[in-house]
Amino acid sequence: MHADELLVDDETVRRLVAAQLPQWSSLPVRRLPPLGTDNQLFRLGDDLLVRMPRIPGPAETVAFEHTWLPRLAPHLPVAVPAPVAMGEPGNGFPWPWTVVPWIDGVTPTESSYDPEEWAVELGLFVRACRDVPAMGGPVKTEGRGAPLPSLDAWVREWTDKADPAQVSRDAVLALWEDALAAPSYDGEPRWFHGDLHDGNLLVRDGRLAAVIDWGAAGRGDPAVELNAMWGYVPLSVAQLYREAVGLDEAAYRRARGFALAPAISGWTYYRDTAPETSRGALETVRRLIASLD
């Protein structure tokens, strides 16, 4: 999926575990199918999961998750994969990596949950995350959850690269300008996940069971969590999700900007390497533009 991607085989993971975490050296290692864009996953025995970054960016979040997820977890209503160990580079692998608990669950689909219940459950999770004490956690100064102008160059660069036959460049920029013109967030920075979509959520028995992959998390503008309205949350219950999250009109307008930034880039970036991801991003861009009418 990435030009600078590093693929790791099972044997490398076995050697790293044996050398650095010998208490688990006898456990079997089994690669899982690729589920995301940032990490390779390996089942370690029955109760653990090894997460190996595939590219440098996610590798930079390993220490963040190792430090902060154990502190966030007690405040949240569902499970989060708080790391139980952090590995170091070795055996030709250049980055730190983590071991987290295995959490039973499946990727949510409309056949595995009631959409209305799901919209409310996810919204209540967002509220709970927003209410977690600051604890001195890092405040975002750029990117997701940071002041929206920090994404301006990124959005304009990827808008220029996008296929104008698929989506009007003027429509994309009108949406972006509206988000920038919204009143800025001037409250206390709040905790957020920052990447709520079906690949980062687990369902068990029809209920939200876990929220995983916290690489985009931090403290900042809580509007960023509304981005799920135009990506993952079914259109039929998007307004219900918005009500459950409970933010004002200014946040809604900023949220469209936060949703646009990864969608406009993902549409083009993954066009050849991950067509399904690219199509999902394009659909998000189209939903966002339609919401401006």
From TrEMBL:
The lineage of its organism: Bacteria, Bacillati, Actinomycetota, Actinomycetes, Propionibacteriales. It comes from the Bacteria. Pfam families: APH (PF01636). Residues 34-258 form the Aminoglycoside phosphotransferase domain. This is Aminoglycoside phosphotransferase family protein.
